[in-house]
Design brief:
CATH superfamily of the largest domain: K homology (KH) domain
Largest sheet: 3 strands, antiparallel
Organism: Candidatus Pseudomonas adelgestsugas
Number of helices: 3
Protein name: OsmC-like protein
Strand content: 35-45%
Structural class: alpha+beta
Distance between the termini: 42 Å
Radius of gyration: 17 Å
Shape: elongated
InterPro entries: KH_dom-like_a/b (IPR015946), OsmC/Ohr_fam (IPR003718), OsmC/Ohrsf (IPR036102)
Length: 140
Amino acid sequence: MKARIQWIGEAMFLGESGSGHAVIMDGPPEDGGRNLSIRPMEMLLLGIGGCSNFDVVSILKKSRQAVKSCEIFLKATRATEEPKVFTKIDMHFVVKGYDLKDVQVKRAIELSAEKYCSAAIMLRAAGVVITHDYEIIGLD
């Protein structure tokens, strides 16, 4: 996997992925940015959520669960002093579908957390406490 990050002025950067996609990152005004785009640490948090959500949906589909929606609400706590790393991330999954089985949803989240989500596993290995909870909303 490769990426390229180019400084484009002030506190703004262009990130280009090896797959050919691009994103702009910017900092807050107090750090010289213009607050026009996502911050790098926010991007990291989104990456963890995206990785986990991908896993959970994939696992639920493979287990023939009629999942129609999966959202993760993340709340990260950062250290107060430099480096301001993540110290804790709470992940709340809201899974919607037809006749979803609690045991299947719980297992999908556990598998993502323990085996498949490289981003979360890497951060956990670095000492970040990551918690998971979920709710299931049945559709008629």
